[in-house]
What we know:
This protein has a single domain (9-75, 82-203), classed as Rossmann fold (3-Layer(aba) Sandwich). The protein is 45% helix and 12% strand. The protein has seven helices and seven strands, in the order E-H-E-H-E-E-E-H-E-H-E-H-H-H. It has helices at residues 24-36, 53-62, 87-101, 117-121, 137-147, 157-178, 186-203, and strands at 12-16, 40-42, 66-70, 76-77, 83-84, 107-112, 130-132. Strands 2-1-3-6-7 form a five-stranded parallel β-sheet, with helices on both faces. Strands 4-5 form a two-stranded antiparallel ribbon. A hairpin with a 5-residue loop joins strand 4 and strand 5 (83-84). The chain is globular, with a radius of gyration of 17 Å. The mean pLDDT is 86.
Amino acid sequence: MQRPLDRNWNYSVFLNIPYDKPFEKLYLAYIVGLVELGLTPKVTLGIPGGAARIDRIFDLLKSCRYSVHDRSRVGVDRKPPPTPRFNMPFELGLAFAWSKLTPGTHDFFVFESIHRRVQKSLSDLSGTDCNIHQGTPKGIMRELLNAFARRQNRPTVPHMMQSYDELLRSIPQLRKAAGANDLFQTGIYNDIVLASTTIRNNSRPKTSQS
């Protein structure tokens, strides 16, 4: 199948993660890590509900060269009635199918916090190598470097963590400016990506001019 004509396609990453407060720091780590690698994270925030939601999600996935699927949150949502959530494995299934139907146009990566748990929670993925991040921002940085090992001008984990710490310090101001109660809203998400990009650009070595 012909590759997308959008020149940004080769730098776009569909980010499939849980949107809840306990995941905030890992969410920020994914954004910072991808931006530091010169990639553009894409999320489903802002996509409305309804019958067309899944079509919009699939369109977003298809517009990305890569996707990252975090499977570290496999527990039951405790809010009444206690219910497991299947949105993330469903979107992983879409990515798997798209990668098979369009060879060479999409690669997906499965991230987890615990070794061998995916083999139990999603046994159909047996044989797929997972990136194990141990549930820490530093682990996410390390595993993003492992997943995108072919990227040029790769930063080091300490450098990525410095950028992450700098972003963390700016979050209260970003949240106040956006009037956001949490970080999982479209407006503040765009501000976070912009702030991460600014941090990355400012931390690049300056080239000397003759």
